[in-house]
Design goal:
272 residues, alpha/beta, Aminopeptidase, two-stranded antiparallel ribbon, 6 helices, globular, binds zinc ion
């Protein structure tokens, strides 16, 4: 991991060009693995788990209320993913830094991987980065996470174990001023059978508005987990999206955790 000597002063985002390290020795590593020896065929990822900004980037030019919004992280997703990791006995890989710094579910060549604007918010610390600055974020935060997931999947595939890749996400109820009708969604491309089973499980509650490839769909130019870690390997993979205000309390996380656990257990029975 990279090391930088702490100076006690917070750098302005623009002053980082000359710095060679993004993380100090007392900052968390780029990602964490929870329940690494979990026995479930499901490998959980949480790519937008944290809104932490490396200290050297200061506040990335945004006030506190912007850094608490969905543009910085998926509110509730980490807690939900950890709940599922426990209840399903599934390994969980989660990022420790904000997607405003680098988005670990975007191809690293995509502009949205280090967004200059997120929704309607201009991100001052991401304006006009040079190649060196972009590479530093990708090498320090993106690649270690992506490579760790790849290594795990290599091992699972070599061992011939049945494996499903699942990213846990949350979405904002209002996006670009428009209210979204869904409470949850399943996003997928190649994994139609796995996704259909999960959708059927969620729709057992007929009152629940569930999105089928909503509120987003998977596109190789804008996604990484499903195209690379799942479809690209011939493994079934989906992203689960839950509306953030439904999982921003412990009770909400418990309720959605139990619901999704039932759906995953059903899908594991139905899908070979
Ligand atoms: Zn997300």
């Amino acid at each position: 991991m990279s090391i930088v000597l702490a100076t006690g002063t917070i750098a302005s985002p623009q002053s980082t060009a000359s710095r060679q390290h993004l993380l100090a020795i007392d900052e968390p590593p780029p990602y964490s693995v929870i329940n690494p020896d979990g026995t479930s065929p499901i490998l959980l990822l949480c790519e937008h788990a944290s809104n932490r900004i490396p200290r050297v980037l200061g506040d990335i030019g945004l006030p506190e209320h912007e850094r608490q919004r969905h543009i910085a992280w998926d509110i509730g997703a980490s807690a939900l993913a950890q709940h599922l990791s426990r209840s399903l006995d599934a390994p969980l890989f989660l990022t420790n830094y904000s997607r405003l710094v680098v988005d670990c579910n975007r191809p690293f060549a995509a502009p949205s991987c280090i967004p200059e604007v997120s929704e309607t918010t201009k991100v001052p610390g991401n304006q006009g980065l040079c190649e060196e600055e972009r590479a530093l974020r990708i090498e320090t935060l993106f690649k270690p996470f992506a490579d760790a997931v790849s290594r795990r999947l290599d091992i699972l595939q070599r061992s011939g174990r049945r494996t499903f890749v699942v990213g846990i996400h949350s979405f904002t109820p209002v996006y670009f001023g428009k209210r979204r009708p869904w409470e949850a969604g399943v996003l997928y491309a190649g994994a139609t059978e796995f996704a259909r089973s999960l959708l059927a499980g969620l729709r057992e509650d007929s009152r629940l508005p569930v999105g089928d490839n909503e509120p987003y769909n998977i596109h190789p130019d804008e996604d990484y987990t499903v195209p690379v870690h799942a479809d690209g390997r011939g493994l079934p993979g989906v992203l689960i999206e839950v509306r953030q205000d439904l999982i921003n309390t412990l009770d909400g996380v418990a309720a959605w955790g139990e619901r999704l656990e039932r759906c995953f257990r059903r899908a594991l029975r139905e899908c070979p």
